Amino acid sequence: MKLTKIYKEWNFFLMLLVCLLFLFGCFLLPVRQASASSLPDLPASNTTVTIPAFELAAPPEEKTLQYLGISGKEIFKSTQIKTEVLIIEVFSMYCPHCQREAPSVNELYNEIETDSALRDKIKIIGIAAGNSSYEVDVFRKKYEIPFPLFPDKSFAVIKTLAVTETPTFVGLKVNENGDHDQFLFHVGGFEKVGKFLEKVVTSSNLKRERQ
Amino acid sequence: MVRNQVATFMGGAFIVVILSITTCYAQSAIFQESIYNVGKKLKPTNSSLKVMVGDQAPQFTLTSVGGDKISLSDFRGERNVVLSFVPAAWTPVCSEQWPGYNIVKDIFDKNDAILLGITVDNIPTLYSWTREMSLWFPVLSDFFPHGEVARKYGILRSGGISERALFIIDKKGIIQYIDVHDINKRPPLEDLIQGLEKLNIK
Question: Which CATH fold would you assign to the domain A49-203?
Answer without folding.
Answer: Glutaredoxin (3.40.30)
